[in-house]
Amino acid sequence: MKSKLFNISLKTSYINQQHVRAALGLGALVLFVLGAGAPAVMGH
Amino acid sequence: MVLLPAVLLGLIAGAIRASIGKRAFIIPDLAEVWLVIVAFIPQWVIFFLPLGQGWASDEIAAAALVISQGLLLLFAWLNRTLIAFWVLGLGLTLNLLVIGANGGLMPISPETLQRAEIDFPAEELQLGERVGGLKNVLLLAEQTRFEWLADRFVLPNELPFNFAYSAGDVFIAVGAFWLLWACGGPKAEKLGLAART
């Protein structure tokens, strides 16, 4: 029982870690695009 | 902000690609993410915060943009194991080249402003002046170094909105789309590991 709980906890923390990394990666890409690009925003 | 649709489209296309191939959509583990955050802060304060757009002098804005983009180029180099970052880095290099060669801001000509049908009166702007408190500086095309890399392209006027963009911006949009498209591909898992090796 204890080891089962431990495994679930490990799995959950792995999933959370993956989500955090994915969010960081996506966030970094968004910031990169905003910072590297230099379009002139205008409109009609 | 106008380049963000490329990120959104890439996300959607990559997710659909992963779903069709019954694979996971895996965003790669990027190296030195802190660097992109540090690099973006000066631009955020000067160009993106509504309050910040007026207070910074053109010289401060130019220095902040060049330093920030230099750090972003380093970030692209550190993530060069991902092919999409070569495209992103190329776009940034082209933008940085024309920005650096013209005093630190992205040149735009009065003709381009006119073609894009801007919201504010172009005749009120002086040559050499920053446009709308943003990253652009108004320069005559013939006085612009590397003019072919400046903000000189505009969307067709039939569209309900318009903006001017550079060749570098196109590469950046393509690179962002490509990176996210690859996240839904068969090599996405390898790609995730590759960023760290």
Can you lay out the helices and strands and say which pair or pack?
The complex is a heterodimer of chains A (44) and B (197).
Chain A: H1 2-36, E1 40-41
Chain B: H1 4-20, H2 33-48, H3 52-55, H4 58-78, H5 83-101, E1 106-108, H6 110-115, E2 130-131, E3 136-138, E4 153-154, E5 163-165, H7 167-182, H8 188-194
Parallel strand pairs in B: 1-3
Antiparallel strand pairs in B: 2-3, 4-5
Q: What amount of the residues of chain B lies in strands?
A: 5-15%
Radius of gyration of chain A: 20 Å
Helix content of chain A: over 70%
Oligomeric status of the shown chains? Answer: heterodimer
Features:
heterodimer; A: 44 residues; mainly alpha; 5% strand; rod-shaped; B: 197 residues; three-stranded mixed beta sheet; two-stranded antiparallel ribbon; 54% helix; globular; disordered C terminus
Tell me what the structure shows.
The complex is a heterodimer of chains A (44) and B (197). Chain A has 44 residues and is mainly alpha-helical. Chain A contains one helix and one strand. Chain A has one helix at 2-36; one strand at residues 40-41. The N and C termini of chain A lie far apart (66 Å). Chain B is mainly alpha-helical and 197 residues long. Chain B has one domain. Chain B contains eight helices and five strands. Chain B has helices at residues 4-20, 33-48, 52-55, 58-78, 83-101, 110-115, 167-182, 188-194; strands spanning 106-108, 130-131, 136-138, 153-154, 163-165. The longest helix of chain B is centred in the middle third of the chain and has 21 residues, at 58-78. Chain B is globular. At the A-B interface, helix 1 and strand 1 of A face helix 1, helix 2, helix 4, helix 5 and strand 5 of B. Strand 1 (40-41) of chain A pairs antiparallel with strand 5 (163-165) of chain B.
Short description:
The complex is a heterodimer of chains A (about 45) and B (about 200). Chain A contains 1 helix and 1 strand.
